[in-house]
Amino acid sequence: MTVEPVLIAGAWRPAAAGGTFQAVNPATGEPLPDRFPVSTWEDCEQALQAAVAAADLLRRLPPEQIAAFLEGYAARIESKAAEIAAQAHLETALPLKPRLADVELPRTVNQLRQAAAAAREGSWALPTIDTQLNIRSCYLPLGPVCVFGPNNFPLAFGSISGGDFAAAIAAGNPVLAKAHSSHPATTRAFAREALAACLEAGLPAATVQLLYRLSHADGERLVADPRVGATAYTGSRPAGLRLKAAADRAGKPIYLELSSINPVILLPGALRERAAAIADEFTASCLMGTGQFCTNPGLLLTLAGEATDVFISAVKQRFADAPAGTLLSGAVAENLHEAVLRLCAAGAQLVTGGQPIPGRGYRFANTLLRASGETFLAKPEQLQGEAFGNASLVVVAANLAELQQIVRSLEGNLTGCIYTSTQGEDDELYAALEPLLRTRVGRLLNDKMPTGVAVSPAMNHGGPYPATGHPGFTAVGIPASLRRFAMLACYDNVRPARLPPLLQDKKPTSRTWRLIDGAWTQADVPRRA
Question: Is 7 helix (H, G, I), strand (E, B) or coil?
């Protein structure tokens, strides 16, 4: 039996394995042929030793060299785009076109190139200089970063290709990637190109390393190891919280994306004005990717009335008419079914769907549920539990006061949206609800479903707990995302030649912004009189 090797210290080598696993084609439910190892701590130990040595070398390299790696890696991914997208389709059943080949893969290389530009320019590090006191500071690399990738974005959030990876590398850190078990061969394809690009750019070979699967105990031990600078994790809340507890005990930073139901508030004026269009938008957003987006609108809040009943009936018909897509794995299908049953047990009424679809592969009927505001407020914790997949709950409040109370009861989310009339008739309701929703979401939208996440410097893909582990950071949006993987380093009366280039009197590049004596400038430090 052949078992795929792991990537440690620049070499593909047999794993110190405690078992093996196979990915499964979700469209058929059948195992794929390649066998991958479940690494023991011996692999982690060797990878950590190599990562520490790589981190020491990376700190001495110019940002230009790190940028060259990221750009070279992006180019290599483009050269293998068809192969990578096809493998991801096989392992996830996500549509090859347009989803993987035309949307997610271009986004992946785009964010690698944005990270390269940020590394080269250096402004992300917030270089700050006080010439009077001769105190200077900037962000510097933190050390080896562990990245745990999710199942739902094998390319753009992948452990050795996605935004966390790009940000950690651009900040000057090596990455120890833990692949998601749903798409190990896709991750392997990325790792091959990453290693080649790393060697071409002259970076330490252990800048990128890959393990496929660990026991829960070894995963917790890894994130708490003294040699780890930080960890990024995207996945289920229970697993993420176990890692967080381990990292917290050791005082190690860990950046989590855990769960989000992304509430959408639909106000009466918008409903009267364009109900059919909103029903189309809501249905498309809920069912896109079979609902397996972290920004999927899992909760819609509205006010009671005949127009609301008509709207819910329209959405029910759209859900029933739309084909049910394939879920990412058997576990996702089982968890979705259990989540729907929990919602019903808590008082939600099934409008349509609610059952697995028999046959090959993993599919679940498009599911819409309904609950009154009173029912929701009786069990808010249970009724805002995430149902990851093609399911959503509509909560109908009796009046504004009840709707405000519902919003106050919400946990933290990645996004929140309010649909209002374009003619201003919902403005008073908006003013009464927006301040409540604002504190519970990382990204606030108006008249737009939350599913898309633009790779923009202004983007916040984060939010209050339990959407993420810390409300002050974003997983998408360069350059801000880089600062998760850096430490603030201060230099007090340090001799000029001993300062990092960002803090020396001469500007490091013509594009670098530095805060000098309270003013942002791209100039050299002025000479003292």
Answer: strand
Residue 174 near residue 209 (C-beta atoms within 8 A): yes
pTM attached to this predicted model: 0.95
Catalytic residue (choose from 146, 294, 386, 417): 294
Q: What is the pLDDT of residues 393-428, one digit of tens each?
A: 999 999 999 999 999 999 999 999 999 999 999 999
Write out pLDDT tens, residues 24-65. Answer: 999 999 999 999 999 999 999 999 999 999 999 999 999 999
Going 347 to 368 to 285 to 328, the CA torsion angle's sign is: positive
Q: What are 145's two structure tokens?
A: 């970063």
Of 121, 257, 281, 402, which one is the catalytic site residue? 257
Identify any residues that bridge with 491 across adjacent strands, giving them in sequence order: 136
- Has 294 been annotated as catalytic? yes
Active site (annotated) includes residue 44: no
What domains lie within the chain, and their CATH numbers? 6-111+138-258+474-482 (3.40.605.10), 264-446 (3.40.309.10)
Tell me the percentage of the chain whose pLDDT exceeds 90: 99
Gyration radius of the chain over CA positions: 24
| 26 close to 361: Cβ distance less than 8 angstroms | yes
Q: Cβ contacts of residue 370 below 8 Å, gap of 6+?
A: 312, 348, 349, 351, 393, 394, 395, 396
CA distance 293 to 152: 7
d(CA 277, CA 282): 9
